[in-house]
Amino acid sequence: MKIHLNNLSNKLNKIKLVVMDFDGIFTDGSIYLREDSNGFRKFDVKDGMGIKLLQKISIKLAVISGSNSEIIKIRAQQLGIEIIEKNVENKLLTLEKIQKKLNFNKIDTLFLGDDVNDLSVIPNVNLFFVPADAHLSCKKKADYIGKRRGGKGFIREVADKILINKGYNPNEIFLTRNEFSN
Predict the structure, then answer these.
(1) Element (H, E) at 73
(2) How far, in Å, CA of 23 to CA of 34, rounded?
(3) What is the pLDDT of residues 105-126, one digit of tens each?
(4) pTM to 2 decimals?
(5) Distance (Å, whole) CA 57 – CA 52
(6) Which of 142, 161, 158 is nearest to 150 (CA)?
(7) Residue 122 — φ and ψ, nearest 5°?
(8) DSSP label at residue 87
(9) What distance in Å separates the CA atoms of residue 70 and residue 52, rounded to the nearest whole number?
């Protein structure tokens, strides 16, 4: 499904909403369990910075996850992401609700996913991006396969692509001190 570089650039310029799966995008997909069955996940601060930079240029962000973990809400709220949908069985229906609520459409939307349960959103997004370690079925349908792995800078890689396509230099820090907590 790869698209020509000029077409990718044109599509990226139209993006106003970035919707992300959680495990495999924010994280490397691993869930660490302790004896008390409480799981925990680790995050890459570069991804957090990428999210802050997208927010700075008024890109709306949302998380749609099949997991019901409280960690999703905690991390998303730390990053200022207001739309958090957990325990989702049908990601396409949830995506459509988010788009309707924000008055966005397919052309405005980029989705970051990594596994088969993310594929259902493709008919309703302009772009479908996956990390380097995404499942093969997602790679076959992706408009872009990242160089970075999920939870290892993939969100920042995508953020930089968006910033560059919208005329911003991702190497210049344009956040205030209060916006740096990521």
Answers:
(1) helix 70-78
(2) 18
(3) 999 999 999 999 999 999 999 9
(4) 0.91
(5) 9
(6) 158
(7) -50, -40
(8) S
(9) 21
Q: 151 near 42, Cβ under 8 Å?
A: yes
16 pairs with which residues across the strands? none
Rg, Å, the chain Cα set:
15
What the block records as the tokens of 112 is: 């970051």
More confident of the two residues 129 and 178: 129
Q: Which residues pair with 121 in a beta bridge?
A: none
pLDDT tens digits, 46-87: 999 999 999 999 999 999 999 998 899 999 999 999 999 999
Closest CA to 65 of 134, 1, 121: 121
